[in-house]
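Renewal narrative, Specific Aim 1. Our central claim is that a sequence can be written position by position from structural information alone. The example that follows is taken directly from our test logs and has not been curated for this report. It begins with the structure tokens describing the chain, in the order in which they were read.
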């Protein structure tokens, strides 16, 4: 049984339904653009409100529970929500950034006169419902169900442009995510179900705590989970993410910098903490296999990012590396590293969404999407490139941005684990982050604008305002990290 205070409440259901119930309104007002956008904003604000109400219930270490369905198809595992500090941290990040991304999407979609905007906003809302379903999952079956539904609901967003490139990227996206989850994740869940006697709940001790398991079995099972939840972007199951960059930038920004990719690392954290438990993994040392796969991904993706001229692809490979920062941190098993992993979910989200927002705003204003085309644009769009600089500083881990704090915890966690080689990888990777980000900033501010460059129109205010807010938030998180730190601390034993 739980040793924590359990609160029965339907708030998690309402938080998920807020965006789901907006879809009929979005479709109804498909010809009334202002009303359609108003429905999107109202749904986003309501979702964030419900998430905030749950936060106030769990911020002292309590959990909120509600059952959706009893066991299905003879499986003794109900579909249940159970919101703890990890779930609410992720939900706060996703729901708050949905509001800003909705505003950004309006400026982006209008600026480019995009087609099928009603369909776009409808699936956008659906994907946020599935994201919160993952965040609130109370057992392994519920987690897997919403994970799969998220893959399906985001496919139309990835293929939004409906051209050959979009269809190819969408096929890669869906085939990779479904094949890995069915080929690796589902067998891992079935094995766990049999091994633990049918109890897949995240309540109480870890699901496999106290089970007899050796290094080989533990390592194979752990990697089956890690590769099964391939939204985490671990190599070699990462190619879906750069391929999905064919999606409109608002999709790349929220779903591929926050919601989808963070669902992947969120699931890996759940597996380490709530399926295996840090004690069992520490005893059999199976975590070291995951550590070195993540370390390889960090370095390799950083090196690949340096060679990319397409701005969104450089950001995509950067994201792959940053996701493995989180995976490596939780795999180190030390309190500092696990807390750093949880904090980096938020720190990276605000920094990376700023960078994606900037990439999209540059494209709307100038039609340029290659780094080699950005010479001198910083003088034309100083606010935009100033925000890009702040986002790059946060992802690199420079003061005064929140990325410094989460990376500091990760490095301290590696030191606590006495894994000096992995500590060095964190440091070297941060240097590589600067190597592939700051030439972009230098090019924008310190190289002259080409003489034959056409007159540059400014990016829409609806694009510039959200990226300014997320850049400011990246700085604010450096000075006011208390909420994130407290929620991360609650996940630790005795927290």
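The sequence written for that structure reads:
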């Amino acid at each position: 049984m739980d040793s924590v205070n359990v609160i029965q409440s339907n708030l998690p259901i309402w938080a998920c339904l807020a965006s789901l119930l907006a879809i009929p309104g979005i479709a109804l007002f498909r010809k009334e653009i202002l009303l359609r956008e108003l429905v999107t904003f109202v749904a986003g604000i309501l979702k964030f409100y419900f998430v905030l109400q749950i936060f106030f219930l769990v911020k002292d270490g309590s959990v909120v529970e509600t059952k959706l369905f009893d066991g299905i198809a003879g499986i003794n595992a109900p579909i249940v929500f159970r919101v703890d500090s990890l779930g609410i941290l992720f939900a706060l990040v996703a729901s708050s950034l949905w509001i800003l991304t909705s505003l950004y999407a309006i400026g982006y979609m209008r600026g480019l006169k995009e087609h099928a905007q009603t369909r776009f906003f409808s699936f956008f809302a659906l994907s946020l419902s599935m994201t919160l379903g993952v965040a609130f999952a109370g057992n392994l079956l519920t987690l897997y169900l919403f994970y799969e539904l998220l893959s399906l609901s985001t496919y139309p967003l990835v293929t939004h442009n409906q051209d050959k490139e979009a269809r190819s990227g969408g096929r890669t996206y869906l085939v990779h995510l479904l094949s890995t989850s069915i080929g690796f994740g589902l067998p891992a869940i079935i094995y766990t179900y049999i091994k633990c006697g049918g109890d897949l709940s995240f309540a109480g001790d870890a699901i496999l705590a106290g089970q007899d398991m050796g290094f080989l079995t533990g390592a194979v099972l752990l990697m089956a989970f890690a590769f099964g939840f391939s939204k985490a972007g671990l190599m070699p199951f990462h190619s879906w993410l750069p391929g999905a960059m064919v999606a409109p930038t608002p999709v790349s920004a929220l779903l591929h910098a926050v919601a989808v990719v963070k669902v992947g690392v969120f699931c890996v954290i759940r597996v380490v903490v709530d399926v295996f438990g840090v004690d069992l993994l520490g005893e059999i040392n199976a975590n070291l296999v995951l550590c070195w796969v993540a370390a390889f991904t960090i370095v390799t993706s950083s090196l690949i990012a340096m060679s990319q001229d397409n701005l969104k692809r450089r950001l995509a490979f950067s994201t792959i590396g940053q996701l493995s920062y989180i995976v490596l941190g939780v795999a180190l098993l030390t309190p500092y590293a696990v807390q750093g992993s949880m904090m980096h979910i938020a720190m990276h989200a605000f920094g990376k969404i700023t960078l994606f927002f900037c990439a999209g705003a540059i494209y709307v204003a100038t039609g340029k999407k290659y780094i080699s085309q950005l010479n001198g644009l910083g003088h034309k769009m100083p606010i935009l490139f100033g925000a890009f600089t702040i986002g790059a500083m946060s992802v690199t881990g420079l003061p005064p941005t929140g990325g410094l704090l989460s990376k500091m915890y990760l490095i301290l966690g590696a030191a606590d684990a006495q894994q000096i080689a992995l500590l060095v990888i964190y440091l070297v990777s941060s240097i590589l982050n600067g190597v592939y980000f700051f030439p972009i900033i230098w090019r924008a501010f310190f190289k002259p604008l080409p003489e034959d460059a056409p007159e540059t129109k400014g990016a829409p205010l609806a694009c510039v305002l959200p990226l300014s807010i997320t850049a400011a938030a990246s700085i604010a998180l450096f000075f006011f990290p208390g909420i994130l730190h407290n929620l991360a601390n609650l996940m630790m034993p005795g927290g």
